[in-house]
Design brief:
This protein is 45% helix and 13% strand. The chain contains nine helices and seven strands. Strands 3-2-1-4-5-6-7 form a seven-stranded parallel sheet, sandwiched between helices. It is globular, with a radius of gyration of 22 Å. Residues 223-280 have low confidence and may be disordered.
Length: 280
């Protein structure tokens, strides 16, 4: 956490609210919120809000952004920070959990990368025996999702295929209409593609670690005829990963051109040709 700052009085460019835990072990929503915060903190004053039950030790640690804990039962601290934020980026069920976010003057960005109404249709098909329970959950998911579509100022998704899906949802609730189409023909001011992933350095490091592990395993194999054949196959596999690392390195040295259509969007990949995980 940054030193010499008072979160009770500080104003922020962007507040990112994670709907899932952040810590040493975290799932996709937590990872995405963390990586987006790191990316945006390079150019903006950012604060990341995470659940108070997140398994993270904050003592003695510093991050490129401020970090606060929020509670469902005591939302006053989150509300105070939100009131002093120019832009608020949320995901999942956050808008339903904290409806006061709808009333704030901040620019509201909704990250739709988890299409939970569709996902839960399949998850609960196998977890719940009662169709009545599944119908109740599905209707609630649709209520939460549609509320996001109605109140969001801008939307994020993780791929071009997701963008096509969410364009349909936006159209169904009249967020795409003659006026929006006249002012923004390609709808880039409405929804952006922000790929999910790690930073480029972490990605390359993991590829290198994979190669080194494979080479260690190869060195420990018994040197007989069968092992030689297996090693030969492994060499091809390792070579493929070396090529992947080299290609990633080339991508890193050739930044993707930006379409600067707003104060934040210029720092995210915008089109299908830009899905190279340059930043996140």
């Amino acid at each position: 956490m940054k030193k010499g700052t008072s979160q009770d009085q500080k104003f922020y460019d962007i507040l990112v609210i994670s709907d899932d835990v952040v810590g040493d072990k975290m799932a996709g929503p937590g990872i995405r919120a963390w990586e987006i915060s790191q990316c945006l903190a390079q150019n903006f004053n950012v604060v990341l809000a995470i659940p108070d039950y997140s398994p993270i030790n904050l003592e003695g640690k510093e991050f490129p952004f401020d970090l606060i804990l929020y509670s469902l039962s005591q939302a006053s601290r989150l509300k105070k920070v939100a009131q002093r934020s120019r832009i608020i980026l949320i995901q999942g069920y956050i808008l339903s959990k904290f409806p006061f976010l709808k009333e704030l003057p901040a620019y509201l960005i909704i990250d739709l990368y988890v299409p939970f109404p569709l996902e839960n249709l399949f998850v609960h098909k196998w977890k719940l025996k009662s169709r009545e329970e599944r119908e109740f959950i599905h209707k609630n998911d649709l209520r939460v999702f549609n509320e996001q579509i109605l109140y969001g100022d801008h939307f994020l998704c993780a791929s071009q295929r997701q963008r096509d899906l969410f364009l349909g949802a936006l159209l169904s609730l009249n967020r795409i209409n003659p006026e929006t189409l006249d002012n923004d023909p390609d709808l880039r001011n409405l929804i952006s593609v922000v790929p999910f992933g790690l930073t480029e350095d972490k990605k390359v490091n993991r590829e290198i670690e994979y190669i080194q592990q494979k080479e260690r395993e190869e060195a420990e194999l018994p040197q007989n005829e069968n092992a030689f054949k297996f090693n030969e196959e492994m060499d091809y596999e390792i070579s493929d990963h070396r090529l992947a690392v080299e290609k990633d390195g080339e991508n890193k040295n050739n930044p993707v051109p930006r379409n600067a259509l707003g104060p934040i969007r210029q720092y995210f990949p915008q089109t299908g040709s830009e899905l190279s995980l340059i930043h996140i």
